[in-house]
Amino acid sequence: MKQITRKGLEKDLVDQLERNGSLGKYYLDLVRDYLELWDTKNALLADIKGRGVTVKYNNGGGQAGIKKNESVEQLLKVNKQMLCILDYLALKPSCQVGDDTDEEM
């Protein structure tokens, strides 16, 4: 499976907009928003992978324990917003997104 790159993802989404006849500044701005959310999603996934779904805390006042990693909840919200943008633009992610390997994120 090819690695999805930011540049490849952007090219795929813009190509789809062109094929749909929906290319314009407003739509390109939404694609940029989608890509920013994609970056955020990847950062949240990295945090969850690194720290896990639960994290230790110590508030310095004698209270310590384990709490849920807030990145999990944020990831769900970011994914939902990404899907809303794709739905609004009537776009579907392509299987050919990773063709451009010069940039990984």
Automatic annotation (TrEMBL):
<dbReference type="Pfam" id="PF05119">
    <property type="entry name" value="Terminase_4"/>
</dbReference>
<protein>
    <submittedName>
        <fullName>Phage terminase, small subunit</fullName>
    </submittedName>
</protein>
<dbReference type="InterPro" id="IPR006448">
    <property type="entry name" value="Phage_term_ssu_P27"/>
</dbReference>
